[in-house]
Amino acid sequence: MSFGYQVLGFGSGGSVGPPYNIELFVVAGGGGAGGGSGSIGSSGGGAGGWREAAAAEASAGDTITVTVGAGGAGGSSGADGINGVDSSAVGADLATLLSTGGGGGVYTGAGNAGGSGSGGCPTSQAGGAGNTPSTSPSQGNAGGAGYPGPHANGTAGSGGGIGGVGNWSTGGGTGATSSITGSAIYYSGGGGGGSNTGYGPGYANPSSGADQTGGNGGSSAGGNGGNGRRGGGGGGCIPGNAGGSGGGGYVALKMLTADYSGVTTGSPAVTVDGSDTILEYTGDGTYST
Question: What is the reported pTM?
Fold first, then answer.
């Protein structure tokens, strides 16, 4: 699934050599879920923002600096989760491609804004806004409102994902697939909200079987968001348990193998798919053309 590309141009920056195209995919860290307490479940974290771009005219001597944001920590019992950390890719003559961390889940009140927002708590507390700050195409969706009934009896809202808004009854906003690596893989699903009446609402959209991007709303502690590539929000939790952590961010660069310089820092995973070379970063690093 594609959510549209922003076209970003590299200038020559005084460098020499032929220009070539580099495709960019940037996912921020997911938000951690809130921690439950007493008879109150807490909300699921929002997915890290998703942004992608076809970058033109990367010239010899340019450097792309990659920053990969960590997932937010889940809240302890009775505490809010932490927002995920932003991820970015920026070249010497390239405007920053920045994805915003997912909103952290909450113990009480409305959800937090982010790339995708976290859920709100019962009764009917609003989910946090997604696509914050605003980008075009959108980098994420809002979290879902909490159950429209008594706080002590309801399920908290779930975090938003790149594919949809969170919902207290059906779980986190769905993730979506990117095929930048050559295989369709899900990223950026929201975390499910927690409940004091048993198991929380489902997980975010799975890619296959139990390969989920967002964490489950837990019957004990909340589930963690998928790590590394996934960037999903942490799952919510039922009373007295810590919330799950958000999944870590991810950045990928893709170019023709004939253009690949081999000059990197930060130890990205390097793979070849047909005529393309893909660099996958789960930590900070650089690529020099």
Answer: 0.88
